[in-house]
Amino acid sequence: MTAPQRLTERKREAILQAAIAEFRSSGFEITSMDKIAATAGVSKRTVYNHFPSKEELFAEILNRLWNSITAEQDMPYSPQKPLRDQLQTLLQAKLHMLADENFLDLARIAIAATIHSPERAQDMVARMGQREEGLTAWIRMAQADGRLKPVEPAFAAQQMHGLLKTFAFWPQVSMGQPSLTLDEQTQVIESALDMFLSRYQA
């Protein structure tokens, strides 16, 4: 990467960080491109060179949110390993992400912005659903292997996500509660595993 490219990337990152800070403190509707430019220490023209509109800038922030949700998609199903061990690895990755302050900041911004726009909310939910398909695919493969009972994989995956988010996402995003400690994460994971496997393990 050349020096001008590095400078351009640094400016783009400064704009994104400024936007996150402004959206977080003022909300999407009130935040202006002028304010973002001032906070980033760049000209308004520079902001528009990178992002043609506030919606585009917000979309890029959401893309970062979606990218961070893919943590659980990295582990394929293994017919040799115990189901509990595999699920435990998936859930630990999920909780590690949910405890990340940057992720929570982005989630708060996204949720606040969608309250005023049903279309934006529908898009966000659809994107989150696409990004959370890792567990769904894992459940589908475990079923095909005869190790899980018949159930709609997306339904079972959503149940599991719900068990985690009840403790490790919604209280932090909506009520400002602290992220779970490692001991609390372990407790939530073990309880979710007990409930899920007692219901679905073949």
Automatic annotation (TrEMBL):
Sample GO molecular function, one term: DNA-binding transcription factor activity
Keywords for this protein: DNA-binding, Transcription, Transcription regulation
InterPro entries named in the record: DNA-bd_HTH_TetR-type_CS, Homeodomain-like_sf, HTH-type_TetR-like_transc_reg, HTH_TetR, Tet_transcr_reg_TetR-rel_C_sf, TetR_C_Proteobacteria
PROSITE patterns: HTH_TETR_1, HTH_TETR_2
Official protein name in the record: TetR/AcrR family transcriptional regulator
DNA-binding segment(s): 32-51
Domain HTH tetR-type: 9-69
UniProt xrefs under PANTHER family: HTH-TYPE TRANSCRIPTIONAL REGULATOR RUTR, TRANSCRIPTIONAL REGULATOR TETR FAMILY
